[in-house]
Amino acid sequence: MSNAAKYHEAQSAKAGTEEGVSEWFEVTQNRINAFADATLDHQFIHIDPEAAATTPFGGTIAHGLLTLSLLVHLDATIERNDTVPAGILMGINYGFDKVRFLTPVPSGGRIRLRSVIGQSVLKGNNVDTTRSMTVELEGSDKPAMVADWITRAVFDS
User: Fold this and answer.
1) Which domain holds residue 13?
2) Residues 17/114, Cβ–Cβ less than 8 Å
3) Strand ranges inside 48-125, DSSP E
4) Rounded to an integer, what distance in angstroms lies between the CA atom of residue 125 and that of residue 144?
5) What predicted TM-score, i.e. pTM, was given to this entire model?
6) How many domains are there within the chain?
7) Which pairs count as long-range contacts for 35-43, CB under 8 Å and 24+ apart, including other chains?
């Protein structure tokens, strides 16, 4: 059995189980401003505290795509007991099946990630694993974001 097939089998056996929960992370106004500069999205609800205060949000909010981008960092803070699979060359971001922004993240808000392993698909020497990612917002009953994130593990032949 190939290393990719062994990894696929192991991932499939974990489907539906929670991988863990990340550390809390504060989304500061400086980070929101830097994201606005990087993406050229300077809508006032993100960067103008005075104007944003007059909206139903009551202040500036993070870009939804900033919250999505923070999955990489948040995911890296989840403690896992997994060892690096034999024969793996690299892991890459393959894409998303679903992304929903449910609750705005206010400037200064704290978020964390909850990750649940989903489907795993063997594709030659690659294994695509979908994980259900829920970004929780401290003090909110509703998540800030939910997404089905597909990562690809690339194995040697």
Assistant:
1) 3-27+61-155
2) no
3) 88-101, 109-123
4) 35
5) 0.93
6) 1
7) 35/62, 35/63, 35/65, 35/66, 35/69, 36/63, 39/63, 39/65, 41/65
Structural contact between residues 4 and 126, judged by C-beta atoms closer than 8 angstroms: yes
List, in sequence order, every residue forming a beta bridge with 53; answer none if it has no partner: none
DSSP helix, strand, coil percent of the chain (3-state; round to 5): 25, 40, 35
* Phi-psi group of 20: left, alpha or beta (phi > 0 → left; psi -120 to 50 → alpha; rest → beta): left
Q: Is the alpha carbon torsion for 15, 19, 21, 22 positive or negative?
A: negative
How does pLDDT run across 116-144, given as a tens digit for each residue?
999 999 999 999 999 999 999 999 999 99
Inside any domain, residue 74: yes
pLDDT tens for each residue of 7-25:
999 999 999 999 999 999 9
Q: What is the CATH number of the domain that holds 136?
A: 3.10.129.10
> Residue 93 contacts by C-beta under 8 Å, 6 or more apart in sequence?
72, 149, 150, 151, 152
